[in-house]
Please model this.
Amino acid sequence: MSLDDVRARRIKAFSAYDAIEQIGKPCIALVEGPAIGSGGEIAMACDFIVATDAAAFRTPEALWGTVGATQRMPRAVGKRLAKDMAFTGRTLSAQEAHDAGLVSRIVPADGALDAVRVMAQTIAAAPPLAMRLTKDCIDRGVETDPAGALAIEMLAIDTLLQSPDWGSKIARFGSGKSNDVDHAANQETKLGGGHA
Model:
């Protein structure tokens, strides 16, 4: 490819990662094998990563003479580990990635898709506005100072207090009545959430 082609391809890739991050609904990545370079970027653009024991993460771009994963990886695993991975090509196993905070759960390979489906059902059963605002509060809150983050959360709470979902869901909480979220959470327990 020409230099212009390479640049255009990189801009498109960055736009794709950004589009995943901007999805208004929670997005789960399931990694069942090596996630190298752009594969890792796609996974990190999701809200969280579920992995099997066969998953591995590597960001070897600098060793190839280019640059990549310099923004999401340090935010996920910290500056020093991100540099170790970038400078040496170090591969993180699923367990190392979990221990570093890159992976939120490790699930058995034979039930990985079912486990992620149950997680998705739990998320889908929750009030959509509350889920969207929670995602926004976390994403924006970690990028600002504590006072600004609390202001973002208070604005979200004020928005929810005006929603009919708030009263009905809060009224059911602790009442002993089953709801879709309780059912999905129970299903997840039955499937085995792997390493939390």
Remarks:
- The first helix runs from residue 3 to 21.
- The mean pLDDT is 88.
- The chain is about 60% helix and 10% strand.
- The longest strand covers residues 28-31.
